[in-house]
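User: Before I run my own analysis I want an independent prediction to cross-check against. Here's the chain; please return only the structure tokens and, at the end, one sentence I can use as a sanity check.
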Amino acid sequence: MKLALTVGLLNRKTGEGNTLQLVKRLMNKFRSDVGGFLGMRQLEEQILNRSHTLQSFALDFEHYTLNLDIVNNRTDNTESINRLEFSAPASMIAA
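Assistant: Structure tokens:
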């Protein structure tokens, strides 16, 4: 699943839109494995320098949480993924 998600992100076309929306669309292909989409949380936002920020998100699904870090370049309006990892959903950790 992680490999297929990575390949889908690498094959993204210029101007395909918001990285988070693309990740949600790609994850929908694995709905039978990950379950339904429950919501998204922004965990952190950090200014790296004058043109770059790092944003951390958690996308919660019924069976998994996908954690990712996105580096935004305000100079050329591009985004790149810095970290992508799966974990148990927050609801299972709290239980």
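Sanity check: DSSP finds four helices and four strands in the chain.
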